[in-house]
Amino acid sequence: MFHQLKITERFFLSNQTMPFCLINYRFFVKLNNRTLLCPIRHARFSSLTVQSRSTISSEPSMASNPVRVAAAQMTSINDLAANFATCSRLVKEAVAEGAKFVCFPESFSFIADKDGESVNIAEPLDGPIMQQYCSLARESGIWLSLGGFQERGSDDAHLRNTHVIIDDSGSIRSSYSKIHLFDVDVPGGRVYKESSFTEPGKDIVAVDSPAGRLGLSVCYDLRFPELYQQLRFQHEAQILLVPSAFTKITGQAHWEILLRARAIETQCYVIAAAQAGKHNDKRESYGDTLIIDPWGTVVGRLPDRISTGIAVADIDFSLIDSVRAKIPIAKQRKPIEFWKSESL
């Protein structure tokens, strides 16, 4: 006789056995010192060994209780030390508010004043700039999302626009290189050509954290919903991170509506840390840092759209489950093969 489980927790294989059947959830397998995620729709086992998640201290737990997060807003300039001082102050504010995770905007560490400056200061992720932020995370006991770091590219003329996740021990847990580059003639504004000095990324990245499963992106990615569909439905994201430096013109027209759309259509929280205000004579960012829940409601926002500070909100995992259960789009959506049908 098999026992059927319909639960939402993750499991780890251990040394206690029982026969049962698993439906529509996932567990982890330890293999050669690696933890592998095994999502399954339906399987029968003559025996399966189970260990409580709470006993695995080396892995970040997928929290069931609400977790407080913070999203930072700042006006970065072409001064690495000044920007780090601002980030350090905002981390202290987040810790004081009880946040376990704080998200910074694109280009948090540096925004160039002249052409070529960003490439010149670009470093590998193990370089001294990023190591400062690793130390900040460790000393503050908090996870950091650092979106849009100038990572050294494959040659001296290019960098990668890289979103980095650092845990509370100061270790880099994951990184994502921006896929969609900002090559745009902004109506009534200037022409941008990010691809002239930036290499596009190729990989979709999601990573577990104490605040839930994070889907990584950067700024202009926001206009491409298929990335977020992949993060939700193929990579099981619960929170979508969109660190950004939207222009004032495009931000006024599209910022909030795009973010709320991504939250609604994926049933995920969205955390969008934003650059704000004038960085130099040539560049100004829209600001309006937002935290949005899976129903599309803004739950975190600074009172001043361009001020430096943090927005704080609690990630409610029961709300994620409720929204997804009541509007079950994950079960109802069509596979990609459906849209390739010759009859359509």
TrEMBL record:
Query: Can you give the residue ranges of the CN hydrolase domain?
Result: 67-317
Q: Which UniProt keywords apply?
A: Hydrolase
Q: Does the keyword Ribosomal protein apply?
A: no
Pfam families given in the database record: CN_hydrolase
Record has Repressor as a keyword: no
The organism's superkingdom is given as: Eukaryota
Question: Where are its TM segments located?
Answer: none
What InterPro entries does the database record attribute to this sequence? C-N_Hydrolase (IPR003010), C-N_Hydrolase_sf (IPR036526), Nit1/2_C-N_Hydrolase (IPR045254)
Entry protein name = CN hydrolase domain-containing protein
Tell me what organism the protein belongs to: Salix suchowensis
